[in-house]
Design a protein that fits this description.
7-stranded mixed beta sheet; globular
Amino acid sequence: MRKTIDTRFADSRAADLSLAYGLRPLPALGTHSVTLGGLTVELRVLGASHQVVLGDWSETVACLPDRPGALPAREEQVVGDYVVRFEARCEHPADFSAAVSRVIASCEADPHALVAEFPGSPLAVTALAAGASGDGVAWETWHAYPQAGELVYTKSVVSPR
């Protein structure tokens, strides 16, 4: 699913992003719910960030005012009833435009994905794609920051404990 967001892209950068689990659903600019293996996953775009809601649990990757930026490269945690594996990396593709275009094309073709484009820059994109993973669910996200040429990739796998 592709959605153009009415809110202009806010300049930010990869280093401002932080990870939080269990936040209440934050106001979303775009949402897409998918059901995978009996589990409903809500993909949510929050400005230049994202939130994924699974039942009463959530993962938020965002520029949060009460948290310092810095995503972990890799971590595994037990959070409530789930085992969560998270990874993140920031890339500076030589051809930023082509890299973002590939993300858009891949997610646009996926019924379990959401691509949000922000006005002001055709390369200002947040994309999320969900899929089944064993007895749990997984999702990948991409945050494109054209002003810095940064493409942030995250992957999460959530399984029952």
